[in-house]
Amino acid sequence: MRFDKDLEIERAMVIYAHPDDAEFGVAGTVAKWAKAGVEVTYCMVTNGASGSQDPEMTREKLREMRYDEQKRAAKILGVTHVVFLGYEDGYLSSRSHRRGRGRAPHDQPRRVDPPDVPGALA
């Protein structure tokens, strides 16, 4: 996607903590860029296993439901790749990345090699 004579974006990554964060924050931009041919990667840091008021809901079922919802939302917006780092929702700390080599949010742009990371949601 060419913005002007000096700026062309081919790949972008959106790093965000929770399911729906990307959709609430940058969905319009993601859809526009994807439609224009930008290869967009989503990187969800937590597993989305917290937040249900349903007494029958387990963390495992909620995690799988959130992953499925995120994949479907990404597909609708034209996102090319979805990366799930899988950190436990509600238990993420500034030291969490030390427990999971290669899963640190700051490692992800190098894996996809986007020249521009348009924003990160926390």
Order of helices and strands: EEEHEHEHE
Order of strands in the sheet with the most strands?
A: 5-4-3-6
Query: Could you tell me how far the N terminus lies from the C terminus, measured between alpha carbons in angstroms?
Result: 26 Å
Coarse morphology: elongated
For this structure, the CATH topology is Rossmann fold
**Class in CATH?**
Alpha Beta
Word description of this protein:
The protein is 32% helix and 25% strand. It has helices at residues 21-35, 59-77, 108-112; strands spanning 2-4, 7-8, 11-16, 39-46, 81-87, 116-120. Strand 1 (2-4) and strand 2 (7-8) form a beta hairpin. The strands form 2 sheets. Strands 5-4-3-6 form a 4-stranded parallel sheet. A two-stranded antiparallel ribbon has the order 1-2. The two termini are 26 Å apart. The chain has one domain (2-120): LmbE-like (Rossmann fold). The longest helix is centred in the middle third of the chain and has 19 residues, at 59-77.
